[in-house]
TrEMBL record:
Gene3D superfamilies: Glycogen Phosphorylase B. This is Glycosyltransferase. It comes from the Bacteria. It comes from Flavobacterium macacae. PANTHER family: GLYCOSYLTRANSFERASE WBBK-RELATED.
Amino acid sequence: MINIIFFERIFNTNTISIEKLFNTIYDELRNKGLFIEVIKNPYPLKYFWKSIFFFKKREGGDITHITGDIHWISIFLNPKKTILTIHDLVGLESLSGLKRIFYYLFWIYLPLKRLKYITVISEKIKEDILRLLPSVSKKINVIPNCVTIPINVVNRNYRVNKILFVGTRSNKNIEISLKALEKFNFEITIVGKLSLEQSKIINDLELKVTNKENISEEELIYLYDTHDVLCFTSVYEGFGLPILEAQARGCAVITSNLSPMKDVLGYGGVLINPYDQKDIEFALEKYQTDISFYNKCILEGYKNVSNYTVDNIAEQYINLYEKILKNGFN
């Protein structure tokens, strides 16, 4: 039996996407006969040295797998039996000055130079890393995210009336999509805390918006089930899991023609230029007026999401674990 110890970041109710993903994977790995132990970081970032020593004392099992975010704890772990999963490089995009240098050293340069095995969730993240560190190419394995909610094939009564947004951070780029919605009479639901700018756009355009924060998994599934289109016009993602979630529940998708979103989408939706309001308007109008096209996108979405089942993704991780054990930590 393969024994894997997973190291996770400190729990934060506002950022649970990594935990949600790996909790799904843990269950499947256990079903496949692996022994899984999960250890969470008890310390906030300002005590990062304490975190390093905390995890060093708990290193063990056949393989240690860092599930993301706390890359820097890898610095003192066994580099030949430790895997680090990288979800994005968003810190490099948003930080500047000394904070950016610190992030580069402890989240990217030192972990990637030291460890032998890295997984990333998309080809886009691999490309981003190799632009910074071309020498680590052979260390990187691309293992995509799995869909974390049940796939449910539904027969929808065709009437595009309700639009869903999941996420409100600046990279989600919802401001331009909200402006595109002015010419329509849609009901809109936005999941996530609204910024002052977003609230102002909603009020100025008199959009019919319901805002929800800190919702449960069950509530999120209900929103996918009861909305007609997911509008996910992000300009930066590590993967873009809401695309798969929407497809799994028969909700049509509009997303950006940028990687990794366009790669994740498959044929189950509409690609748009996220900087072009007219392009977003055209996609919304296409769904609203063309029932055949709308239904085709939903069917293609179901086909696409079948490539991202937890069974499929768990097998890819198991193959990597077996490869590491076969190499004998050489």
